[in-house]
Design goal:
Length: 729
């Protein structure tokens, strides 16, 4: 048919490459000889060439089934670009085409000009298309992103499971299925469904040597994000979020911080998505913030970083998305922000879904959690998941290999956890078990009489967070099982019972950094102990704040919140204008309390010969600008908060958040009219006095805890706003 040298000539002629990559040539020869092929090749390995070149060389039209409109357009444009005189060589058929365009595609197909036709699985099922395809000479079928066939894959599409039936109806021809992510289980599922158990399997190593993998704690994450992107200024990157709302929010936040970022998700109209994608490909935008809808088959070789703002639902998804970095073999940094709370959120979404689906997603999430919390080489864990052994002990290109975590002998701690789960009758979740061991006294523990168990308080020298981390390691080690249906109830597995009966040495790791997100960015920033700022200066600023607060008989946070001091320790403001730009300061506060602070900073900068980085103040998205003006005007007109929120499609919580941002920027709002209607005077006075005289910090959760159960969070929050307006701002 086609010998090797002839294939090289055709490769050069059609695509301008001198040599094939990896197994491309072998796969193409196999297809040209009429064989079925199953191709497992990591992102960036050159999958599309495996069907594009044979389609141009064989008689008839190749039908490429592909899940995404953006991907089809991208590949068709590329193919037409290679073939100057032949616009019709490649077409796509999907819901984005007009009637006229569809007619043009039909005409081109029937005249035999089209060598490649891309179709969405949904278009393949339409009767008029099936009738059209029956009239064509089909060279072969290519099924791209074949993991969509398997419900165990990360992107299950039911239409994909009907492909074999439709292929048989249209007319038999060789089939090539391609995917960049498939565990051995998914691989079998795909082959079985496509009835191609005898197909030749071509598997390329899943190891991408140039990618650096790191998992960071999700603390003060927005500041970390801006810092990372600024350090990689001028490089292209993708930030993945799980929800559309988060995509919009983070894209606006990055724009406010002078980063050329654009959003991309399935809720945007197709035209806007295409524009944003093209701006990214043309490097008019340096960062795309996206849901997983973005990137499949997008051929941008020089994406230098992929950041997961939210941990993905499966390791297949994670591998596929990180695989979009460094496709040219150059630098590719893959950073994921992880908090166990995100795993819990994802589990909650699944409640109420069919049990089989819950079970699958639970297993996938378990693997993701094990990856995020592991202290082994991340490459080893990833490749092992895809059924490949990674022989080296240290890949020297992931955070765990470069900065190993501290380990400790955890045999006793593990036995205590397993025993507590058994003694609490295997009906309670991790949080409850951790509270029993740490000796926490709360209503839940008392109502179940768990403070009377002999294990109660046996680990009170450590925090519930510590015990929670041990429980999570027990789940990863498969000593404990967690039932999502029963709200996360833990039970001891046979392996766990074995360990309890015959304990052996067990190295666990302490990982301070995997602490949870706190109730607010402010508290998280304080916990992060400097969040990248100058720790020495921060300590001096806190001392100054304490002295001034003592003199003025105010709580320290009334002068400046921790997040404001954090910002000062990063940007070193030495004028009142610069100080006013720090988070939560504003002009009024800067004038009222700022002078001693800028004097201290100026002296510190001078003595330590510091170059002041004027660009690293992380600005909050105050704008939602149309909302800001509307909220201020509405409060001036004394409108009910419920009406204000409804008019802007906000929840009351979101409205209060926006009001807090407005007052933190120094704007005066009088909300007394609303408070009088909703909170009785005694309560109002008690909450106000708490913030005026007793509060150690501005923390809402602390206030609610101190004030007791008869005060709701909303009441406390409203009075805190009044207090901040009248005293703090």
């Amino acid at each position: 048919m086609h010998n090797s040298s002839e294939l090289h000539i055709q490769l050069k002629r059609h695509f301008g490459f001198n040599t094939f990559k990896g197994q491309q040539e072998e796969i193409i020869s196999h297809l040209l000889q009429g064989g079925d092929a199953f191709v497992l090749m990591p992102t960036g390995g050159g999958k599309s060439m495996c069907y594009q070149l044979p389609a141009l060389l064989m008689e008839g039209t190749a039908i490429v089934i592909s899940p995404l409109i953006a991907l089809m357009k991208n590949q068709v444009d590329v193919l037409r670009g290679f073939s100057e005189d032949n616009y019709g060589v490649a077409h796509f058929l999907n819901s984005s085409l007009t009637k006229t365009q569809v007619a043009e595609v039909r005409e081109s197909l029937l005249s035999g000009r089209t060598k490649l036709l891309y179709v969405a699985p949904e278009s393949l099922t339409k009767d008029e298309n099936i009738q059209l395809f029956k009239q064509l000479k089909i060279s072969f079928y290519a099924i791209d992103e074949a993991h969509c066939i398997s419900e165990w894959g990360h992107d299950f599409r039911p239409e994909y499971r009907r492909i074999r039936k439709l292929v048989n109806e249209i007319g038999k021809a060789p089939v090539i299925a391609l995917t960049a992510t498939a565990t051995p289980k998914v691989q079998r599922d795909i082959q079985k469904n496509l009835d191609m158990m005898d197909a030749k399997v071509f598997k390329t190593s899943f190891n991408r040597e140039n990618l650096y993998y790191e998992v960071r704690p999700k603390v003060n994450v927005n500041k970390e994000l801006v810092k990372f992107i600024r350090q990689n200024h001028g490089k292209s990157g993708i930030v993945y979020c799980l929800s559309r709302k988060k995509v919009e929010e983070i894209a606006s936040f990055l724009q406010v911080n002078d980063i050329r970022a654009l959003p991309y998700h399935a809720g945007m109209d197709a035209a806007a998505r295409t524009i944003n994608q093209d701006l990214f490909l043309m490097e008019e935008a340096e960062v795309i913030v996206a849901t997983i809808a973005f990137g499949m088959g997008i051929d941008k070789p020089d994406v230098r970083f992929v950041i997961h703002y939210d941990i993905p639902k499966s390791l297949e998804g994670y591998y596929q998305e990180t695989g979009r970095a460094g496709r040219d073999g150059g630098e590719g940094q893959c950073i994921a922000f992880y908090s166990y709370k995100d795993i819990q959120k994802l589990e909650k979404f699944k409640q109420g879904k069919p049990i089989a689906e819950q079970e699958i997603s639970k297993q996938l999430l378990m693997e993701t959690m094990a990856y995020a919390e592991t202290n082994l080489c991340r490459r080893k864990v990833l490749l092992n998941y895809f059924g490949e052994d990674y022989e080296q002990d240290n890949c020297e290109c992931c955070d765990n290999c470069l900065h190993p975590k501290k380990q400790f002998e955890g045999q006793e701690e593990m036995c205590l956890v397993l025993e507590t789960v058994q003694k609490s009758l295997q009906q309670f979740n991790a949080e409850h078990v951790a509270n029993i061991i740490a000796g926490v006294s709360n209503a839940m523990i008392k109502s179940y009489q768990h403070h009377k168990l002999d294990v109660y308080g046996m680990g009170k020298d450590k925090t519930p967070n510590f015990w929670n981390a041990i429980i999570r390691q027990a789940i990863v080690l498969r000593f404990l099982d967690k039932d999502i249906e029963k709200y996360g109830a833990l039970s001891v597995t046979p392996a766990g019972r074995d360990f309890l009966e015959n304990p052996t040495t067990l190295m666990l790791y302490e990982d301070r950094q995997m602490e949870e997100e706190e109730d607010s960015e402010i508290e998280a920033a304080a916990k992060a102990g400097g969040g990248g700022g100058d720790i020495e200066l921060l300590a001096m600023l806190k001392d100054l704040r304490k002295d001034m607060a003592h003199r003025l008989k105010l709580a320290p946070f009334v002068l400046f919140q921790d997040v404001s001091l954090e910002d000062m320790s990063i940007s070193y403001p030495i004028t009142l204008e610069e100080l006013a730009r720090c988070q939560g300061v504003g002009e009024g506060k800067a004038r009222k309390y700022g002078k001693p602070f800028i004097e201290l900073i100026e002296k510190y900068v001078e003595e330590n010969e510091i170059d002041r980085p004027q660009d690293i103040v992380v600005k909050s998205v105050i704008n939602k600008s149309q909302n800001k003006v509307y909220i201020i005007q509405s409060i001036d007109r004394k409108l009910d908060f419920v009406d204000i929120a409804e008019a802007k499609g906000l929840t009351i919580d979101e409205l209060l958040e926006e009001i807090e941002v407005i007052i933190n920027s120094g704007t005066h709002l009088d909300i007394d009219y609303y408070l009088r209607q909703n909170i009785d005077d005694d309560k109002l006075e008690t909450i106000y006095d708490y913030f005026r005289y007793d509060a150690k910090s501005e923390s809402l959760s602390e206030a609610v805890k101190e004030l007791g159960p008869e005060y709701t969070e909303e009441e406390v929050r409203l009075v805190r706003i009044k207090f901040l307006v009248e005293v703090a701002n």
